[in-house]
């Protein structure tokens, strides 16, 4: 049942059928007639570089059938901008589409383009605060369904950068996400970004964890998370990140690590990540023997899948131990 | 205009799309669904009793897994539960076992499974309409890993991709689709496997790549699309295999910002993707992700010798620390992000990093458990029953993507790859052509519990196609020029 061929609105277009590449194409898809026809009209309008309202209808139709079609999204954006279309209406349509196709990522980039253009073109006309608040809310709604979606987090970062949301509200958001799942590493990564991103990306303010007060706050935050979930890699990685970035002495973390793993009580280890950190502490203290013992505990008892890695670390120790002696 | 992205390597989305594919695949064939799972609950009789490597001792993997009620933990416990009886061979799923009691690699079943993807696909595959070149690549790479001859597909593949190539350079996902780095990468690699690269318009390709090169050193995925680390890896792969000139085309935008070469600022851009965790993100400030770690390391290994570029642009100890932490207990496979689940495709994305890192550190010893990965792949990721194919984890369906990357991961685990410091460069980007590979010793095979039948071929550590196919491409374009 042709949709476009019988439609007088499309009578002037000669559809471009697909070139299958010879009589025996590999992995040829037996397209439905609907999809085939719609695609042949898209090829035709793209070849003619047509940007018109009916192209928007056509791309909407195709996105419904195949939301992973990057070319269609690209051409839709181009058309929207060429026509100076109502971008707020586009956002509303995107909300529905995002909910229908949750895993689709093209949508998030498209959204990024639309929101950016909306603020750029209509600066002063658009209620920016209302816009980013609505966007943040929508994103949070998407996280109800999949709290680790890479593309949605990437969009959230873009919102923070675009609208300068480096303040406490965004930090509270990460706390909310982590309260739901303390092991959600995407939320930890976002927290790192909110705390340090301004200094790293824009260099125009804020020292991130290099500010002693911020550092103390973030160390405390990670430590509290460890207390609740000792064998949770995310807050340990967060702590290690702070150490690496600030160059702070690992000595500050020794007592903390020893609450979860200590050479004195090798049978009472509560976290392999604590052992890992403890080994580093001993390296800093130039106690190669103790560091080696900790790494042995990991290799033989508490984390044998990484035996080779712990042995490699022990090998590095030999060199450093010799240098220290 | 600004940009849109396609995301054919991006794992989460692709996995999702493939789930659609898997659902499609099960429609005509219900042998696994309609009857009780073959072999479920049966304990094989001739199994050696000693199969219990150190990381599989219950005392070890039960150490820290406390139920804290988080969504993450629930998912992790579910995955461990579904893998455990396969890992310990309590349930062999009726797979034929090797001398050591591990399931054999089902070579024929996997090859048959891959070949099916090259036939006519039913209408719901329209969901893959923008990613069809991936089907070519996964199939050709997977088949060649199994030692199958794919030269018989040469003419057909060349004909099939002809309408995907745009006169302005590069390949799209299908006829009339815009050129895209991922589609172009997959097409070029599939053509490399069959020896059909002459279909590529190299001059147009060079011009198009010039258009996607960015002022900050990275590459966009398509004209006006998003910039991420896949773009950098795909573009460098294409430039190297086709031996295209490194000078940027005169009229491209990146030149106007002062860049002269495709490689300008590239290492610095890759460097900016390393995160506080030590791993690599798809773009600066995003979360560390296993697939992007491979893209970064392979890209740097094309740029120049890995022992020069990798330590220069990355904090290598932090990266090794993060990568090592991706191997999961007790499953033994790799996860793609911190606190995420084991998934067979990371056997390549993370497993493939080790040869490159070993070349970078010149460390004589392994940094990871080959044995663990091999066991996960052979026991948990092979689809039992008639159909074959490999899967993310036991509760998922096999698909071409996971079959291809499981086999590539097996090759990384079973073979050794050596980087040779170059004497006389033969191409513009010559370092990626300086690799040789060697098979495991008898002792190693015994240690990893594999027999000859369970071995996969030597897969190039940077280009992820057969070693000899890479050499053929090098010879084909040795002269350079356009
Ligand atoms: Zn996967």
UniProtKB/TrEMBL annotation, chain A:
<dbReference type="InterPro" id="IPR002088">
    <property type="entry name" value="Prenyl_trans_a"/>
</dbReference>
<keyword id="KW-0460">Magnesium</keyword>
<dbReference type="GO" id="GO:0005965">
    <property type="term" value="C:protein farnesyltransferase complex"/>
</dbReference>
<dbReference type="GO" id="GO:0004660">
    <property type="term" value="F:protein farnesyltransferase activity"/>
</dbReference>
<keyword id="KW-0677">Repeat</keyword>
<keyword id="KW-0637">Prenyltransferase</keyword>
<dbReference type="GO" id="GO:0004662">
    <property type="term" value="F:CAAX-protein geranylgeranyltransferase activity"/>
</dbReference>
<protein>
    <recommendedName>
        <fullName>Protein farnesyltransferase/geranylgeranyltransferase type-1 subunit alpha</fullName>
        <ecNumber>2.5.1.58</ecNumber>
        <ecNumber>2.5.1.59</ecNumber>
    </recommendedName>
</protein>
<comment type="similarity">
    <text>Belongs to the protein prenyltransferase subunit alpha family.</text>
</comment>
<dbReference type="GO" id="GO:0005953">
    <property type="term" value="C:CAAX-protein geranylgeranyltransferase complex"/>
</dbReference>
<keyword id="KW-0808">Transferase</keyword>
<dbReference type="Pfam" id="PF01239">
    <property type="entry name" value="PPTA"/>
</dbReference>
From TrEMBL, chain B:
<keyword id="KW-0479">Metal-binding</keyword>
<dbReference type="GO" id="GO:0008270">
    <property type="term" value="F:zinc ion binding"/>
</dbReference>
<keyword id="KW-0862">Zinc</keyword>
<protein>
    <recommendedName>
        <fullName>Protein farnesyltransferase subunit beta</fullName>
        <ecNumber>2.5.1.58</ecNumber>
    </recommendedName>
</protein>
<dbReference type="InterPro" id="IPR045089">
    <property type="entry name" value="PGGT1B-like"/>
</dbReference>
<dbReference type="GO" id="GO:0005965">
    <property type="term" value="C:protein farnesyltransferase complex"/>
</dbReference>
<comment type="function">
    <text>Catalyzes the transfer of a farnesyl moiety from farnesyl diphosphate to a cysteine at the fourth position from the C-terminus of several proteins. The beta subunit is responsible for peptide-binding.</text>
</comment>
<comment type="similarity">
    <text>Belongs to the protein prenyltransferase subunit beta family.</text>
</comment>
<feature type="domain" description="Prenyltransferase alpha-alpha toroid">
    <location>
        <begin position="105"/>
        <end position="464"/>
    </location>
</feature>
<dbReference type="InterPro" id="IPR001330">
    <property type="entry name" value="Prenyltrans"/>
</dbReference>
<keyword id="KW-0677">Repeat</keyword>
<dbReference type="Pfam" id="PF00432">
    <property type="entry name" value="Prenyltrans"/>
</dbReference>
<dbReference type="GO" id="GO:0097354">
    <property type="term" value="P:prenylation"/>
</dbReference>
<dbReference type="InterPro" id="IPR008930">
    <property type="entry name" value="Terpenoid_cyclase/PrenylTrfase"/>
</dbReference>
<keyword id="KW-0637">Prenyltransferase</keyword>
<keyword id="KW-0808">Transferase</keyword>
<comment type="subunit">
    <text>Heterodimer of an alpha and a beta subunit.</text>
</comment>
<dbReference type="GO" id="GO:0004660">
    <property type="term" value="F:protein farnesyltransferase activity"/>
</dbReference>
<dbReference type="InterPro" id="IPR026872">
    <property type="entry name" value="FTB"/>
</dbReference>
